[in-house]
From TrEMBL:
<dbReference type="InterPro" id="IPR036390">
    <property type="entry name" value="WH_DNA-bd_sf"/>
</dbReference>
<dbReference type="InterPro" id="IPR036388">
    <property type="entry name" value="WH-like_DNA-bd_sf"/>
</dbReference>
<keyword id="KW-0805">Transcription regulation</keyword>
<keyword id="KW-0804">Transcription</keyword>
<dbReference type="Pfam" id="PF00126">
    <property type="entry name" value="HTH_1"/>
</dbReference>
<dbReference type="InterPro" id="IPR005119">
    <property type="entry name" value="LysR_subst-bd"/>
</dbReference>
<keyword id="KW-0238">DNA-binding</keyword>
<feature type="domain" description="HTH lysR-type">
    <location>
        <begin position="1"/>
        <end position="58"/>
    </location>
</feature>
<dbReference type="InterPro" id="IPR050176">
    <property type="entry name" value="LTTR"/>
</dbReference>
<dbReference type="Pfam" id="PF03466">
    <property type="entry name" value="LysR_substrate"/>
</dbReference>
<comment type="similarity">
    <text>Belongs to the LysR transcriptional regulatory family.</text>
</comment>
<dbReference type="InterPro" id="IPR000847">
    <property type="entry name" value="LysR_HTH_N"/>
</dbReference>
<protein>
    <submittedName>
        <fullName>LysR family transcriptional regulator</fullName>
    </submittedName>
</protein>
Length: 303
């Protein structure tokens, strides 16, 4: 049994499908299936059971996961040792909530790739927590630290949010001078039963219980606000991307949240992953501060 067989086995175990493993490995699903079949024949055991939900591990397959992950760790260490002086290169897949993925990570990725030309960055934008145990990403950014899991957790940066609307909406609707005035306005926010983290329940802090236009995506919410459909809680770092957006009741509705960097616990000894995490933290903090400073400067000019 060689490492390449174990690599394919782990990809199927984590994605629970041949097609998902194939996309990760850049291999045809039929080839993945043949390789798994050959591995099962070589060791004389069935590793996966095919169900309507996908490929699930059998007891024999489950016992193979730990030694396969140990082999994966050793292979990464060996690869790292052979290019210790070559700088940061290779693929880095970052999972993040879509607000961070849309408004912060593109600039961060540009800066990292400018510094490290051999680096390939993949950004996975999901309206949920990225599953690191299934290797959906190498690192994940979350809006709250997890309570469980074998993870390394690091506070990335604080960020701020305010109630905002497009000037076209504000020009056509009654003035907003205090919180009770919001009851006469249309709100944009999250679909209540699809809020995947309590830190995202922004509208509860406005005293308004119901939003008329909702989405599980921050980007969709922002597009609705941009279209003058209503008011919503927005990230300060996203405001510079929407000309005409105006903060409303800044002294009464001002939220602060934090981003957290999550990594596999097994990666703590990896020089490459430590360097990547350090660079990611530095660049994301700088970009958040830059965009928020732009919002504050614009507010100062209007006062």
């Amino acid at each position: 049994m060689d490492w390449d067989d174990l690599r394919i086995f782990l990809a199927v175990a984590r994605s629970e499908s041949l097609s998902g493993a194939g996309r990760w490995l850049k291999m045809d699903a039929s080839t993945v299936g043949r390789r798994i079949g050959r591995l099962e024949h070589d060791i004389g055991a069935t590793l996966f059971a095919k169900t309507p939900q996908g490929y699930t591990l059998t007891p024999e397959g489950d016992r193979l996961v730990a030694p396969a992950e140990a082999a994966e760790k050793a292979a990464k260490a060996a690869n790292e040792a052979t290019r210790r002086d070559a700088g940061i290169s290779g693929v880095l897949r970052i999972g993040a909530p879509d607000g961070c993925a849309n408004y912060l990570l593109p600039q961060v990725a540009r800066a990292l790739c400018d510094i490290h030309p051999g680096l390939e960055i993949q950004i996975v934008a999901l309206p949920r927590v990225v599953n690191l145990s299934k290797r959906e990403a190498d690192m994940a950014i979350a809006v709250s630290p997890p309570d469980t899991g074998r993870l390394t957790v690091q506070r990335l940066t604080d960020y701020h949010l305010h109630l905002a609307a497009h000037r076209d909406y504000l020009d056509k609707h009654p003035a907003i001078r205090d919180l009770p005035d919001l009851r006469r306005h249309r709100l944009v926010g999250y679909i209540p039963d699809m809020i995947f983290d309590r830190e995202l329940d922004y509208l509860s802090e406005t005293g308004v219980q119901t939003a008329q236009i909702t989405s599980n995506s921050v980007s969709v919410q922002m597009q609705a606000i941009r279209a003058a459909a209503g008011l919503g809680i927005v990230h300060d770092f996203a405001i510079p991307f929407v000309p005409g957006l105006r903060v409303v009741l800044p002294d009464q509705i001002a939220l602060k949240r934090s981003f957290w960097l999550l990594r596999h616990a097994d990666d703590r000894g990896s020089r490459r992953m430590n360097l990547l995490a350090e660079a990611l933290v530095q660049q994301l903090r700088a970009e958040t501060a830059r965009l928020e400073a732009m919002v504050q400067a614009a507010a100062d000019r209007r006062t």
